[in-house]
Amino acid sequence: MATLPNPLPSLATSGLQLPPGTLVDATTDGPWHEPLLWYADGPAAPASWTALRDAGRGLGLLPVLIDRGSRDQGPETWDLDPAGTSYPGDHDAEEVLSEVWDAYAADELDTENAWPGLAPTPVADGPDSPETLAADMADMLTDDGMALEDARLALVPARRSADIPAAIGWSGPLNHENDVARLCAVLRSWEDRFGIRVVALGFDTLTVSVARPPTTEAEALALAAEHFAFCPDNIHQSALDSLEKYAEEALLGRETWSFWWD
């Protein structure tokens, strides 16, 4: 995909003060011609996200938490595929979502409804800015006893947070979508409408913060259709197995969205 110059090869001479870490260039086709990300050797601690974000911003590096999961798998084992990843800006979010809806909604949601279109931008802003909420969410996820037991901070060369999965050639949604840049086009749209930021990536999981969540049932229900098309497993393989249940329990007023692909 098209990117800005990658600062990772010269990270050691950049003046950036980082903890011990690893540059990852391992892909499904062998070593990539340049590092795809840097990530810390040790677990992240609360407040470290903000420090890393501020330090990396001037170099064109954005932070993300790497969730090694119960199998203790780092990104060097994730089958990253930058060669098979296009550029998010080459795709239209609504086209991506409507294609999935048309292909799967009738069978998996038992509905004959046509694609409803993109959800509107919520009327009300949340109390925090997208950057502040993302930092707060990262702190919460790395606090002792919280959701991510061994999360590592990482830096990725990307223009915007929504592009992080494409920038590393992430293959987490491979059973759903071969080119993650198409899903990043949706994340870009969610950045614009809902103030999301990519906070954590695992082998097949994605967590985003949401600074402008839906605040009415109508807003949440409209968005639920997008979530189904983005990640059908969130609804199809969940107790929240209808758009109505999912909208009420997973979207209405929620400042975190999590996705998992089987």
Helix-strand layout with pairing:
Layout: E1 21-24, E2 26-27, E3 30-31, E4 37-40, H1 48-57, E5 61-67, H2 93-108, H3 130-142, E6 151-157, H4 164-167, H5 180-194, E7 196-201, E8 205-210, H6 217-230, H7 233-236, H8 243-251, E9 256-260
Parallel strand pairs: 5-7
Antiparallel strand pairs: 1-4, 2-3, 4-6, 5-6, 7-8, 8-9
Outline of this structure?
By secondary structure, this protein is of the alpha+beta class.
Rg from Cα:
18 Å
Overall, the morphology is globular
Structural class determined from secondary elements: alpha+beta
Low-confidence stretches: none
| Strand neighbour order, sheet with most strands | 1-4-6-5-7-8-9
Average pLDDT for all residues: 92
Q: For the terminal residues, how far apart are their CA atoms?
A: 26 Å
The helix tally amounts to 8
Determine the fraction of residues in helical runs and give it as a percent range: 25-40%
Structure summary, number of beta strands: 9
Largest sheet: 7 strands, mixed
Could you give the order of the helices and strands? EEEEHEHHEHHEEHHHE
Strand-residue proportion: 15-25%
